[in-house]
Amino acid sequence: MSSQQFDHGVHFFKVILQKSIQEGKLKVPQSFVMKHWQGITNPITLRLPNMTQWEVLWEKTCDYDVCFCKGWKEFANYLSLSDSQFVVFKYQENSHFNVIVFDKCGLEITYPLRETSEKCEDVDESDYSLEIIEDPSSSRRKRPKSPSSSSKIYKKVKIISKEQKECKHEKSKVLAHARFYNSKHMDMVAGSSCDNILKRSRILHEKVKNEFSCEKDFFICVIHKTYIERDLLVIPRDFSKIHLHRMEGRNATIFVDQNRTWNVDLKLTRNDQFTLSGGWNKFRHHNNVKYGDVCVFILNKIKGTVSFQVVIFSLEKEITTPYFE
Hints:
By secondary structure, the chain is α+β, with helices and mostly antiparallel strands. It folds into two domains: about 5-100, DNA-binding pseudobarrel domain (At1g16640 B3 domain); about 120-320, At1g16640 B3 domain, CATH 2.40.330.10. Helices cover about 25% and strands about 30% of the residues. The protein contains ten helices and 17 strands. The chain has helices at about 5, 20-25, 30-35, 70-80, 165-175, 185-210, 225-230, 235-245, 280-285, 315-320; strands at about 10-15, 25, 45, 55, 60, 65-70, 85-90, 95-100, 130, 155-160, 220, 230-235, 250-255, 260-270, 275, 295-300, 305-315. Strands 11-16-17-13-14-15-12 form a seven-stranded mixed β-sheet. Strands 1-7-8-3-4 form a five-stranded mixed β-sheet, with no helix packed on it. A hairpin with a 2-residue loop joins strand 13 (about 250-255) and strand 14. Helix 5 crosses helix 6.
């Protein structure tokens, strides 16, 4: 009995050779081409468990010789593929393949953060680029209500949100935990749950970005599922370039008020993006930070030390006690 009878997909695997990376081509097994290639069009889409999608062109040299070509080398470099790694391709439909990658020891790799790929179509966990706007009148503005008595008022920022395909991302994320195996029930649950949360979260985010002003530098972060499921939070690239230059590898402190602090690591990914990790989960649990909440991180830098005061805008509390009203 074939696995296709369970998940309506068909798999093939490839052991990566250095030659395929250097030449920028990967040959598809002839047996797969013979049985399943009919109807597959150019380009194909390769989708990873981190929900990034890559378009790759293929070429056919004879009846059953098909190679991935343009786009394959970039895809391999993004994953840092090397000789003897093991890659599994699962054909879904409409020229889409789900892809999982194993290292030389047979363990599935940790995929790059989806926010860090400029090539990926989908989302990303820092789905917000930050532009600081100087506002001479901010010091004279009336202090708005804050969810924390120790919170300060913040400088006005402009946030540009990559909202396109957001709901599609959340639905796909649920499917990713099932190893890409289709489930109509899961798809319906994902769709119904993400619509309302995303809509409310965007409204709350708009309130925060429009009402807050402060003399200190800060960034605003919408809490996506990645920040709930993993012990990390991605800092917007533009903010990092300006304020965290040469700070990689250092420890930082995050807190809501000075009575309780958490140590976190400032890590720089291989794609030159800073994250807060190794302590973010503890902070999140203690302060009940949930998916859809909006957080403001206010930067304090004193003699080489870094700390962030965090103001949490709870999506749940916004229902009963709206902020700024």
